[in-house]
Design goal:
four-stranded antiparallel beta sheet, alpha/beta, binds 4'-deoxy-4'-aminopyridoxal-5'-phosphate, single chain, binds glutamic acid, Aspartate Aminotransferase, domain 1
Amino acid sequence: MKLSCRTSLIKPSATLAITAKAKKLKSEGKDIVSFGAGEPDFDTPSYIKDAVKDALDKGFTKYTPVSGIDELKNAIHDKFLTDYGVNYENNEILVSCGGKHSLYNLFMVLLNDGDEVIIPSPYWVSYTEIVKLAGGIPVLADTSFNNFKFNLDMLKENFSSKTKAVIINSPSNPTGVLLDEKDIIEIAMFAIEKDILIITDDIYEKIIFDDKNFFNVLMVDKSLKENTVAINAVSKTYSMTGFRIGYAAGHKEIISAMNNLQSQSTSNPTSFAQYGALAALRGNLDFTMKMKEEFEKRRNYMLDFFENEIKTVKPVRPDGAFYIFADISEVFKNSGGSIDSSTKFCSYLLDSYLVAAVPGIEFGNDNYVRLSFATDFNVIKEGLNRIKEAVNIDNLKNLKRG
Ligand code: PMP
Ligand code: GLU
């Protein structure tokens, strides 16, 4: 059977594929250390689980309104009011099956064939694929020469008459880098001037280190509400990745179109999962802050280890999220040409040292590797020791001979 041209345009999510592969090898008894997973390793807080159990017991097991139950939309409304000072009406909010689904709905209703979306690169694996699926063209704005910080010059350089939207993801997956407030404001002003949509993916907003603060342009200019779609989810903030609850807030025409699309695809997000998300958003951030502190300790440990023990792998210092994006070009050199891509490097790590990591090429940068530190401290220590062995110059030379 010949499948649609649309399907052949996209590749599977590498982050999910590598995580699944590591889990499978582990279940087969292999001593795998995985830096693959892009999800918190903490158990979902019990008050959230209890809310789901309660919802099931009360019989909330049926269809809900497509855009989500009112209680949850009210909680999302309150979250935006508290965090950004922005007042979204209920018809300006759509709850979907994860942040990824929110983005999917958005690009599907936004893009015509050939419309361009400017994506700061390196980028999260799904942005490019969803844009392509929707008929759009991902336009990658290289940020690597500016400490991975997207700015107005990069936006201008990549802007064309076909530009429909620009993505802001701060802190970012895969670098964890936070954009400067000034840059975000300048980007937003240019977007307004050119009438392009600002898509702000704030999924890592609560996981920020070094006492730095999250910033969204809506916090300083409420009028941007009409030109911005804010994407978020409970997935990372409350360690609820499997619940699949995300949400979008923006202009009512866009949200209404997304609602129509969702009504013809998934219908409502899972009824009882919505009650879990409601408990999460109505609760406090104690759990999140504890998790964040733990992530920060792990980040510090990893940065120190690279600085002192593995000098040939050079990490970007993440301000937030839970990833280390590290430059491996010196390892390529030391391998005498036998490792010349991030994919080969990750295969070498997995085959020879049983370490799973995501090749940088999947995020648009082949000289890098992504290591998630959303995993146990002991696993991190073991994994780093293995990587140290793997990139040891003698072992790399042997690889060439072998
Ligand atoms: N945006 C970014 C930057 C992400 O890393 C993720 C992680 N999967 C998502 C959106 C979507 O998250 P989810 O669909 O699990 O809510
Ligand atoms: N966002 C996470 C990651 O980058 C989860 C997997 C995915 O949805 O891509 O690993």
